[in-house]
Design a protein that fits this description.
The structure is a homotrimer.
Chain A (H helix, E strand, L loop, with lengths): L2 E7 L5 H18 L8 E7 L4 E3 L13 E8 L4 H19 L6 E8 L4 E2 L15
Helix pairs in contact in A: 1-2
């Protein structure tokens, strides 16, 4: 159920790099927060420079135009330890397997209730039996 | 106050279909979660195929390129029964009146406090009297 | 850490106006909710008219095509008084310094836990010591 929304500056990533980024995010979620097979819902939005503004040195982290702003909407069912592992795993995977600088990985988690997801058919599958179709 | 953000694959919907989708979402909110007349704030973002990735069989639901990912930010004032009715009504209306397959309707609710909305003038209208202008 | 996502109708703002809007939002956050220097992460998405739909008179507020829909994701650490000041300061600043009509300023706050932010390096800086690089 995670919904992953990635924002980046236009032209900083090839299609192959974008696919690799999404794959790494998916693997990170699979390995750290028990996301099931094929539970992968992700969008990438590219922005012109004037529409993508970020602090280039906030917290003494040297960000570049390659910055990824990753917003993950997930259920509020994970303890901090799992979320902490997710954040580390995302940064490790993106660095090692896609070559993203760790300084350029901004992640924000938005948590919502388990009942707040319908994966299809108008059913909230995580809390109700599928009585549709 | 709901803020409705719809994501879809570029070219899969005509303008008429997009208008019909937004109209159905609005009607669903009006009928199930007491959204007032004209309380309709919605955006549609279209994505290239490489920027719009989804599980094509997660939970044994056969999704197609026509998938709609609908994120609704609403106040956290509704009991589960109302949210459940909203999810069903969205799927029913989109299927019957717009022809969207129920498998292609992904909905995520994000809940926020009633005080977290300003509809204009810098006032949080749901919790303060309008003392502006 | 606030993540600011601004939606507007395509062509209604120049690049200079967009920069001024983001600057005012940043100043408002600096002055009312204790946002540190350079903590500025913002995107602007422009929409075609058919993809940007809003109630033109909801709550008797006369909105125009110049509407700004501003979604701010922030930590859930501020009391209502600070959020109230933020909403007012945003509207005041945008009106006085950028010329945005107060009727055209829609703001929604989404609150998330302090632990739900990584500003880089896979560390949740607000709750852990930076043990990375």
């Amino acid at each position: 159920m995670p919904l992953t929304q990635i924002s980046l500056r236009k032209g900083t990533k090839t299609n192959a790099q974008k696919a690799a980024i999404m794959n790494e995010l998916y693997r990170a979620m699979r390995e750290t927060i028990d996301v099931p097979d094929d539970d992968k819902f992700m969008t990438i939005s590219e922005f012109e420079p004037e529409d993508f503004v970020f602090g280039r040195h906030y917290m003494d982290i040297a960000r570049s135009d390659d910055l990824l702003i990753i917003q993950l909407t997930i259920s509020d069912t994970r303890p901090w330890e799992k979320k902490r592992a997710l954040l580390r795993r995302i940064a490790d995977g993106l660095e090692k397997n896609v070559g993203v600088r760790p300084e350029d990985i901004f992640v924000n988690l938005v948590e919502t209730k388990l009942e707040n997801w319908s994966l299809g058919h108008g059913i909230a599958q995580y809390v109700e039996k599928d009585t549709a179709a």
